[in-house]
Amino acid sequence: MKMRLLLILLAILALPGYLLAADQEQPTIYVIKQGDTLWGLSERFIKDPHYWPNMWANNSQVTNPHFIYPGQKVRVFPDRLEFVPLGQAAASQKAVSGVMPEVAAERSYTLYGSEGFVLEKNAKPAGTVIGIQNDRILAGDDDIVYTDIGTAQGARGGEKFSIFRKDSTVIHPVTNEVMGTKIIPLGTLQLTDMERTSSRAIIARVSKEISPGSYLMPYQENRRREIPLKMATRDLKGYILDSYSGAGIIAAGDIVYIDLGSAQGAEAGNMLYIVRDVTLDQRYAEGRIDKLPQELLGALVILETGEKVATALVVKSIEAVYKGDRLVSLAK
Length: 332
What we know:
Order of helices and strands: HEHHEEEEEEEEEEEEEEEHEEE
Helix content: 10-25%
Strand content: 25-35%
Number of domains: 3
Structural class: mainly beta
Radius of gyration: 28 Å
Shape: elongated
Strand order of the largest sheet: 7-8-11-10-9-12
Number of strands: 19
């Protein structure tokens, strides 16, 4: 009898500690508000904005970590975040109302007009710079150049054109198809004196030195604009074709060109995930496994689309990214 009372007493003494531990494991429930993103939630609650790939990977109901919806519920633990499965009751868990910091602002990205693009193989420039005054090989601000654009093309004196450098031929890394030519913006010029098939022009603005053979495209005023994130309406799958810099390793902040355009349903603002298949060593698998989960490398946002290609900004890179890495939208 004494032994039983002693055990009961020990159990009662241990109970507060058990309840405390249980309470520490009891998560706070946060309800998603308009404008929340996983980057913002990770930074606020986990103090690590780079936690979002783990949250995305461990929550199958989140097909896009930057498209979460008001009313969704998140369990907030000291070291992790978990989405509450749809329809699951959470009445026994603590609810939070009005005590959290301001919600994360909705993200958007800026198109500056200096990112360059792939001029598709069936497209042609409006004209070219055919020479520089005094037979010089490079032109800068206020220099005089000559073009093959004339009145026969409907051009007028005073008309502006953007100047691009013809950089390199872009070949698809998987199919070897020629996708087009990478062209890099150099500046703008304004036509001054017109002939039927040629013209004189003055360089109005220059960001890089201009040489004969540079491409001319119709000038677009105020190309800079904000690109808000937009849910993909189709299941997009593609590849990274090339980068603005041409460097072998691509990282966050780099501009890339991809093989998805308006013909495939891609739109400015779509976020795509950069993934890579994991190579399996069959010596250890012994034929029991035919495929491993894809490795998540990062994410990019489309800034501008052509018909079959697009210009995009790499917004996250968990590991080094390369030309030829795959892209998926995970849209449902």
